[in-house]
Design brief:
single chain; about 180 residues; alpha/beta; Pectate Lyase C-like; four-stranded parallel β-sheet
Length: about 180
């Protein structure tokens, strides 16, 4: 009985000591798995996008207006870009050092379904670095970027996935980069 308990204890210790790995076998850094709640008051001055000229019409793509708020915050030392309650349609947004994103409860940052709202730049997709369409939220070469809040980021990619599955019927070898 004592040996069975010892064996079980050793198995449990070994299971807990296991490092989480990416599919390629490299270890996942501990910071990546940190799900500690963010203290939003520590993210700096709040820049509520509707206070800076972003309209509340959920059918109008407002990329330029939202980007202007991000740029304003960055030029003033940073802060939190706040998406309030409502749906705000946008193309690619480029966050800068010192800026963060808060999406309040009931708020939604929704991606445009027009591919030309996402410029082609050097990026990583499917484990490869290549020129490809940018994401809705881009935070390249900055440290400490935080996304917080109880709202939603909706990539609105259903249209693109529909095209992918149609193309996949024609060419089973295609990837989502080919759609």
């Amino acid at each position: 009985m004592r040996e069975a308990i010892l064996l079980l204890l050793l198995i449990c210790i070994n299971a807990n000591a296991k490092t989480d790995l990416w599919p390629d076998g490299t270890p996942i850094d501990k910071w990546f798995a940190n799900t500690q709640k963010v203290d939003e008051s520590q993210l700096g001055k709040r820049y509520v996008i509707t206070d800076y000229g972003v309209g509340t019409d959920s059918t109008i793509v407002q990329t330029a207006a939202i980007q202007k708020v991000i740029d304003t915050a960055a030029s003033n030392g940073g802060g939190a870009i706040v998406v309030p309650k409502g749906t705000f349609l946008s193309g690619a947004l480029f966050f800068k050092q010192g800026t963060n994103l808060i999406i309040e409860e009931g708020g939604k940052l929704k991606g445009s379904d027009r591919i030309h709202d996402f410029p082609i730049l050097e990026t990583r997709i499917e484990g490869q670095t290549c020129k490809y369409f940018t994401a809705l939220v881009n935070a390249d070469n900055i440290n400490g970027f935080t996304i917080a809040g109880k709202g939603t980021i909706d990539g609105n990619g259903h249209h693109y996935w529909d095209e992918f599955w149609i193309r996949r019927q024609w060419n089973p070898e295609c990837t989502n980069k080919d759609a």
